[in-house]
Predict the 3D structure of the following.
Amino acid sequence: MRSDRSHPLITLVVVLAAFITVPMSISGAAVALPGIGADLHAAGAPLQWVMNAYNLTFASFMLVAGSAADLLGRRRVFAGGAALFALGSLAAAAAPGAGLLDAARALSGVGAAGVFASGGAILATTFDGAARTRAFAALGSAAGLGLAAGPTLSGWLAGTLGWRASFGLHAAVLIVALTGTGFIAESRAARRPRLDVTGAVVFVAGLGALVLGAVQGPGWGWSNPGVAALLVAGVALLAAFTVLQARSAAPLLDLSLVRDRRFLALCLVPVVTTFGFVTLLTYLPTYLVGAGGLSAQRAGTVMLLMTAPVLAAPPLAGGLVNRGVPARAVITAALAMFAGGNTWLTVIGPDTPAAVIAGPLLLIGLGAGLTFGAGDGMAMSLVEPERAGMATGFLNTMRIGSEAIVIAVFGAVLVSLTATRVGSPGLAAKVAAGDLSGGDGAALAAGFTEALHLLLYGTAAVCAVGTVAIAAALAPPRRPAAAVATADETAVTAR
């Protein structure tokens, strides 16, 4: 059900502005950490939770926000999410200590979940056909712009005005976006049962425990009883959530969505993207600075080879689909680029010129941009408007949840592989963080490189398997033999 008031162009601009800010707040905050630590006299876990608190609540509340958008109104949840995000950003900018800063970031994560889950649903119910494809391509470019511009913009602000200015910028953009929400048509599901509060609590607790266990695993140790308890509790609660949803008359997640193999396959596209693209976005700069000896500014410039295509490729993907190229073909080609690019990137070494790694970085970035441009739009085309928020919430839960878990596991494996080559877990942790001052620099760089190469091959293998599985699941259903025979007979009779 929709209200009559609708301004599609303003709607698109408002949603894009908010969407730029969400990933910018992730990638930009990482650059501000050194300044935050020095100013607030924070280090270790309290400092890392500036990132972790945001990611934890962002992932955990995504599905709840999506279902709430269908029931309460997508514009209402979008505006509420943007307001919470802005409030959290203002509180972060004014925080006098690390504890309050972490709490403010957690609040921003809840708001970001509302923006992401309802923003995609708003576009899915505002646009149709080719216009919807173009809208989601623009959404992919906006997310890519925020991800790519975040480190550069936040680094400049932190260096000139201080780290608080970067959070103030996020709040300012969201406040501007809020002024345009009055031009967005309200829409909600025609049938409006009560929100499944029990399911929401169980899901948030389960995913939160799972993500928290993955985030703390590298620091506490994977054999730590606390980590094991969190992971087991997370899996158990998510299993209980599935049972509750199967029995609920008004589920938070309609399991028929997950039973649709094409929709589920499209929800796995962001997971493969996390393996093939996001892990490198997180850890490759550390390698370039530590083993490669580049300055942070130079490393950021090299990373543009991988992030710049993310801005240009989504419209390319949308254009190809609108010109008749099957979205399945675009997505399959994009995922295959992750496998090929990660394998190709094993040419990297401590003294490798940027020109040598330009090819694989461009290929990986192109793959990411194509998935951003085609994947979400195709997923939403499979879902009726009444469940647009739920579907967007689940899709982005897979995206953000996989990022939090995969990045933590990738880092732990990188440290473990490095430790077998440098002889000390403690030294390996420093090396993986880009600090090679604890011994023979050349030997440490060589060990870091060998470990990274093994991870790149492993990542390529995961992406290759994911590509084949997703391509198979997206294949159109075969017609029964009897139907084919009947069609052939009809054609013969017609002649």
Residues 203 and 241 are 6 Å apart (CA to CA). Residues 268-477 form a domain with the Growth Hormone; Chain: A; fold (CATH 1.20.1250.20). The two ends are 47 Å apart (CA to CA). Residues 388-422 form the longest helix (35 residues).
